[in-house]
What does this fold into?
Amino acid sequence: MGEVVTIRDTGEFGLIDRITADLPADERVLVGPGDDTAVLSFPTGVVAVTCDVLVEGRHFRRDWSTAIDVGRKAAAASLADIAAMGGTATALVVGFGAPPDLPTAWAMECTAGLREEARAVGASLVGGDVVQAPEVILSITALGDLAGRPPVRRSGARPGDFVAVAGRLGWAAAGLAVLSRGFASPRALVDAHRCPAPPYAAGPAAATAGATAMIDVSDGLIADARHVAEASGVVLEISTLGWEVPDPLQAAASAYHVDPIEWMLTGGEDHALLATFPPEAHVPEDFRIIGAVVAGEPSVVVDGAVRDAEGGFRHFA
Amino acid sequence: MGEVVTIRDTGEFGLIDRITADLPADERVLVGPGDDTAVLSFPTGVVAVTCDVLVEGRHFRRDWSTAIDVGRKAAAASLADIAAMGGTATALVVGFGAPPDLPTAWAMECTAGLREEARAVGASLVGGDVVQAPEVILSITALGDLAGRPPVRRSGARPGDFVAVAGRLGWAAAGLAVLSRGFASPRALVDAHRCPAPPYAAGPAAATAGATAMIDVSDGLIADARHVAEASGVVLEISTLGWEVPDPLQAAASAYHVDPIEWMLTGGEDHALLATFPPEAHVPEDFRIIGAVVAGEPSVVVDGAVRDAEGGFRHFA
It folds into this structure.
């Protein structure tokens, strides 16, 4: 039996060298890893930037997720934020904290996951920092390009707009419920918890179609709709009538005697995109219309009932 | 006696609201905190980006440093990286992890420190993420502007260049030695450990003067000179002859029977800038010449002796 090689053996600089080895060429990356900073080209002169932090034990567990899944999930959170402004991510910068006894292979697979998810939108890993920490920490900053379009903010929703959503709702929450009960099936839900599949292309598509407001659904549909309602000073009325409940959600909900619609309304971490469109817009096909914007005290109304933000993920609750 | 308000009481969104309250207006910040991403203007179309992570217990202690000092130190690490490319930081994005029982006042003061340090170079706090973690974690990403100049990389040093340094050497290391022995004086050294004073303006000045290579001295002069030597394929010859040892360093060195020059050669975290200049360059006045670049197997020679990187900060050592 060979010893497991840990990052104590590999060392900070060795780990950085390995993580950044064989990065694909990207003409937008003027200086890549290995200098004090990366240097990037943004020909439009406008840069969208966002940061998400994932902490072991809070946002993932190493016994529930593979290293690749953790890396992909961490990247997805930031990449989805760029999409939610109508942009496309160009580059990721990664702060990586880990205990010295972390297997080097785990760190390598995690960053491979980061790079894999970044590649899905054409973004590059351009730099970062590696430090010792009691648990695994991933801090992912994404930089993105808006292609000359104005950013789609949370504050632009207007009475008369449609409310629409692209991507999955409730899958990650249902997957977490499955895992929390000690099960590993339905596999599609568990996979969705381990690694989301954000509808990245729907973000720029919505911007091009004239979306008035958009947000990454990371805290739950109601909680994030509320952010749009408050920023825009409007009411978002959502109707669940006619919602198709995907089979795996229905199966898990039946087994646990819960309402799958609640998972879809309150589950976060799938990184769906919630957007509002003016009536005359051609809503992109990635989106399904789930409601309308009306005037009134900022709030979210679901099937006629005002809902507070309960069920949304609260980090210090 | 009133209860201490903790971030459990304040909550994630309340904390974000407070941290980002009353940010000064900055016309380069097209979208500030409160949306899925910040949006920044970079008229030259070129962006320098870097990330540094500080972990409580590893990079700072809450009983040794005030919250303001921790925030300033965290910001300084990233701001100095931008300076070391010849740029000026425009914006900071902050990932903040903390235990729920952290006093809200500590979090507020820490981010006030971040903002204060950023203001020293004219940079704005534009966004971030707040999460729960077992200890305080600060992940600071800085974005900077090179003002149309090419980045000053580690790889450009050429035989015949001068080696020069701007800023303090050894102060933070000496301050750590003082604190580690249970003392709080000389105060100037302790303060230097708690919060560095990088020579930010020297970075763009060096770039303008034609510096061929530059690096932020975060691991120690020898260790970082070695990075330049290896990236450039040259030898950096350093002479300590005639170095002035600042009084506080001399005092602490005498008390502990150590050679203060070793602190200056191996101590990191002061964020001095090490640069090389061609013979014909006007070396900016912030810099003092400490050596020369010569051809040879990449290495660092101090006073005629080859030095390995010992004393440089190794994160997993």
Chain B touches chain A through 74 residues (CB under 8 Å). The two ends of chain B are 45 Å apart (CA to CA). The domain at 7-145 of chain B is CATH 3.30.1330.10 (60s Ribosomal Protein L30; Chain: A;).
